[in-house]
Amino acid sequence: MSIQWVYPEFEVIRNNERCIRCQVCARQCANEVHCYEKELDAMISDESRCVNCQRCVSLCPTHALKIVRSDCRLRENANWNQDAIREIYKQAQSGGVLLSSMGNPKPYPVYWDKILINASQVTNPSIDPLREPMETRVSLGKKPSQVRREENGRLNCALSPQIQLSMPVMFSAMSYGSISYNAHLSLARAASELGICWNTGEGGLHQDFYQYGPHTIVQVASGRFGVHKQYLEAGAAIEIKMGQGAKPGIGGHLPGAKVGPDVSRTRMIPEGSDAISPAPHHDIYSIEDLRQLVYSLKEATAYRKPVIVKVAAVHNIAAIASGIARSGADIIAIDGFRGGTGAAPTRIRDSVGIPIELALAAVDQRLRDEGIRNNVSLVVGGSIRSSADVVKAIALGADACYIATAAVLALGCHLCRTCQTGKCNWGIATQRPDLVKRLNPNGGRERLVNLMTAWNHEIKELMGGMGINSIEALRGNRLMLRGVGLNETELRILGISHAGE
Q1: What class has domain 10-96?
Q2: Are 453 and 461 in contact (CB under 8 A)?
Q3: What topology does CATH give the domain 167-498?
Q4: Residue 257 in contact with residue 235, Cβ under 8 Å?
Q5: With 70 as the cut, is the pLDDT of residue 2 above it?
Q6: Residues of the chain with CATH 3.20.20.70
Q7: What single string gives the DSSP state of each residue in 54-109?
Q8: Rounded to whole angstroms, how far apart are CA atoms 158 and 212?
Q9: Cα–Cα distance, 397 to 368 (Å, whole number)
Q10: Which helix (H) or strand (E) element contains residue 492?
Q11: Residue 474 DSSP code
């Protein structure tokens, strides 16, 4: 029995005086909200299907449409809010696990917004980035802990394999299948033009994108989708995905409806079959097992590529990172609980993991205390929203940041949180050809390049205001940060003082 227990969450407001019945809204809506009623000579809407993606609003030529949240609410209850009741109704009707996409939307603290950056005044002059050199390039990988010299006294400048970035930001893992061909192409082209890296995610690398290998991080997840020798050799680095912030302890799942011919070939799985990555790697149950995989991948690529281990931010992350740093990994990527995803169990996304700010500070301090901080570089992600977040992350100890949600927003995402349906009206989280073509990869590349160019300028401005002229001088420099509205425990974990101290 299917009953619409509650009023639709969103209402479609149509100005019939403006509406010219061009049916653009009907053609553009993948959720089939709008349709033309010939007998009435009018457009009508099935509001129960609306996800508020704003596609119809954006493209209506006469601005005749608005989407608003319904003010028809269930009786107010501080304990049982509207979302909790809707979810109960949905599960009572379907008997299924709730799935959600994108990041955690709950009102947990955002520590970036409670951290302020110090500025130079008088005694430590600021630097003008327009007139003086500012270094935003970074190298990710193992670094020597001390100066080394040859027998003849010359400096030994040899380093382990490194990733060279023009700025301390990379595009995080989003797999082909989860997002579209055109979205992957936009990321690959932008990363190549910017001199940074993008990440394939766990779905392998489409044959068309091998040309972007020098700016590609190839991922190895528990499902080993699309993993073969040519794939491993194609990238600038290899990332072992142990977990991700949106769903710690949970594997990946790409519905069979998204596995068309191209995705099937790339992932090396049957067309139309669900692609399920197990929660654990079945060959990794200890740091020793992880070490074996790290060195197997290094051996397979003749020790020419750094190996990244990606883990979710959880309560014992500092101890975990300490073990990873001793496993032979060159880079540790930590993903906070606000990180995005194409699909995750709602309860996991909203209840598991910890904020990236606290995880980063704890890991950096632990590795410094143990004298092994230079054994690895740290890359962090999970809701890095602006250049200011990047600067704060580096001051807390990161070498670079991963961004994904910010990148897809630049591509046109409206955060309607229905990626798991495959009906992305903006051509990003979909495999439907009619929807994929809505994202122009050249336009997407340009928007991503513009975003990163703007961020790079802002990073230089922020560093200049601090009297710092390089990312290396900023890394782990917590004296340049102050907290507001934080308690003593939070300040201690972050390793910063309160504003005014």
Answers
A1: alpha beta
A2: no
A3: TIM Barrel (3.20.20)
A4: no
A5: no
A6: 167-498
A7: -HHHHH-TT--EEEEE----PPP-SSS-HHHHHHHHHHHHH-S--EE-SS--S---
A8: 26
A9: 10
A10: helix 488-494
A11: H
268-292 tens-digit pLDDT:
999 999 888 888 898 999 999 999 9
- Band of the pLDDT at 452, cuts 50, 70, 90? very high
Residue 71: strand pairing partners: none
| Token pair listed for 332 | 């540790």
Reference 358, options 169, 500, 496, 172; nearest CA is: 496
- Res. 1 pLDDT band, cuts 50 70 90: very low
Buried b (16+ CB within 10 A) or exposed e, 124-162: eebbebeeeebebebebbbbeeeeeeeeeeeeeeeeebb
**Contact, 419 vs 407, CB < 8 A?**
no
Tokens of 126: 């600021």
CA distance 370 to 350: 33
- Mean pLDDT for 99-109 is 91
Q: Model confidence at 4, in pLDDT bands (50, 70, 90)?
A: low
Task: List where CATH 3.30.70.20 sits in the chain.
Answer: 10-96
